[in-house]
């Protein structure tokens, strides 16, 4: 049995549009048009990641950082676009760049 794929995301809410903006430290940086109010930015983040990877929103969840800009996102494996990332891998700059590329 495989576990979830985990990676850190740095979120910039209230951006002009929702998009991947590269990496920030060891995180995938994502700009979100949604405001950080009543969970709107978190919901937009989950929907954006699921849409980009072509998976159901129910397979994406925020494991940590519900009210922070830096979040730990979990995705139920396997995911075709993230073939290079294995469950349990510790995310580093290279892995963050791979996730960032998969989300574009």
From TrEMBL:
Family: Belongs to the UPF0235 family.
Protein name: UPF0235 protein ACG33_01945
GO CC aspect terms: cytoplasm
TM regions (residue ranges): none
Organism encoding this protein: Steroidobacter denitrificans
